[in-house]
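Hi Q.,

Before the meeting this afternoon, I wanted you to have the alpha-methylisocitric acid prediction in hand. No need to reply - just skim if you have a minute. The sequence and ligand are here:
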Amino acid sequence: MERGRNVATKLIESHLVAGLLEPGHEIALQIDQTLTQDATGTLVMLELEAMGLERVRTELSAQYVDHNLLQEDFKNADDHLFLRSACRRFGVWYSPAGNGVSHPLHQERFGKPGKSLLGSDSHTCAAGAIGMLAIGAGGLEVALAMAGEPFHVRMPAIWGVRLVGELPDWVSAKDVILEMLRRHGVSGGLGRIIEYYGPGLRTLTAMDRHVIANMGAELGATATVFPSDEQVRRSLRAQDREADFVELVADDGADYDVHETIDLSTVEPLIALPSSPSNVVPVREVAGREIYQAYVGSSANPGYRDFAIAAEIVKGRRIHDRVSFDVNPTSRQILENLIADGHVAALLHAGARLHQAGCNGCIGMGQAPATDRISLRTVPRNFAGRSGTREDQVYLVSPETAAASALTGTITDGRTLGIPYPRAREPEQPRVDVDMFVAPLPIEQARKVRLEKGPNIQTLPVLEPFADTLDVPVLLRLGDDVSTDDILPAGARVLPLRSNIEQISRFAFEPIDPTYPARARQTRDTGHVIVAGRNYGQGSSREHAALAPRYLGLRAVLAIRFARIHRDNLINFGVLPLTFENPDDYERIVQGDFISLDGLHAAIRAPRPIELEDYTRGITIRVGHDLSPRQVEILLAGGLIPFMRRRLVSAA
Ligand code: MIC
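Predicted structure with the ligand bound:
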């Protein structure tokens, strides 16, 4: 008997262009909408220019300016103007600086249940909150989707998480996703779509679901989906968009490949300790530690409710005088509503520092904490140094825990404050402010638009085809869970260089080994490799983490296992991701060894292990890859841009 279909399967089937719906097989998906943000969007627009695209072919593409907001010099400002001109040129919606954070804005303004969304940001998955198939990817993949190409991904296993019960007071959606991270760690979601279902959904609003879906990225999941139900209808109605509501729920008797249950009534306030989102313990276990900063905001807690609850907790009280209480509103619209309802006044009066709507300190764009001092943040990631302070101590928490701790100056479980749990809900009919979104120009006008490029905006480096033989040194040997923040840091110093690969490459692996860029540069023509452990490249989708090392000579990475987006980014920029046939061999290669890989073209095309000679150690190690036939051709061409160019030429 055929089993009922779950929401994830329905979404995949309705977008399937090619491939078998069997976990692990490569499938091609039709993309309806795209999302780009400024830190990754400039490369995407340069890629569209390189492809000679006339106009995007999606149903809707939107570009947000939310990351690079500090303007210490001309670079970020130039990027904003470049993006505005590119939106006018290519037919993309433009959301300017100060309008707000891409993921919640996109969900509220453009998100549609049943549609697919591809975004050049790992947290694009947040829109799964309203029944979208929303996936984060590297910028090149998004550029292709904007050009009308399908997106290729391995068919994930569908992981059904049944929610029962109701969250207790002082516990909110952030604690649910922290509970998932406590149970499964930062690679627990690899190769999976997480689908939440069950009676516990009833009390979770669309923005609560956004919190949970957003940090599915921290589990390494391909996507997270929720059904489109009455809560979704209500959220669209609140944005004057009820007409866009479509019901999308699982069939009766729907089944899943993997099963899990969370009883919401048993979840307690949780906290992720430095420096991984999966170092989760109950807040009570670390209560009393002195803090320097409490921080509310980011795409991981973006709802009106998240700010309103913090405001209600501190209302009429004063924060501790050691604490920097940073409030980062999600959007112009949410800020207006918080002002109208008196919440901003309550926050300010209690001692909060109010910042502009945007990502801000979440990626180290300001608000860096003091050395070795504890910063409690509602953001999605706490990788070491990401805050901008090298010796940071960032803990991930709910808005309740952040606000309670701001008052006491120590890590505090709100339940011990001795005050009643305030009620704070999304307003049924908020003020809707969409005036700052700029609609695409009609095509006749768009054709005349010239891209406005400041001096820091450089064209992409040209990559040559992949070599048949590698005789190269191992320049780095890294551990498990290396993040793209380790590979190519963000922060106010480095983010302004996102449009300039030559400049940004000087920061590659800086947090791990600052000598790498100079050593690597010497191998630009001859090449080098890197050895890594499990879950290599977790975190952000920034393709700079693949392109900058490639520019410096990286040709292959040997790892025990790769994170999805970074692995694809490596291939798209002509770097071969190899895995150890026997994970124990990881221990046998040493930094500084010379290795050789021969006859690679034939070996990569053949489905058999490849022999790697480590001639410093006199050993042979078997490695393999799991590239699809399409990815093999992309790699051999030197990456996705030369591959597409070749395809376009042969089509012409
Ligand atoms: C992040 O949260 O790490 C970022 C900054 O949003 C990135 C994108 C980027 O590096 O520009 C992401 O999540 O993909």
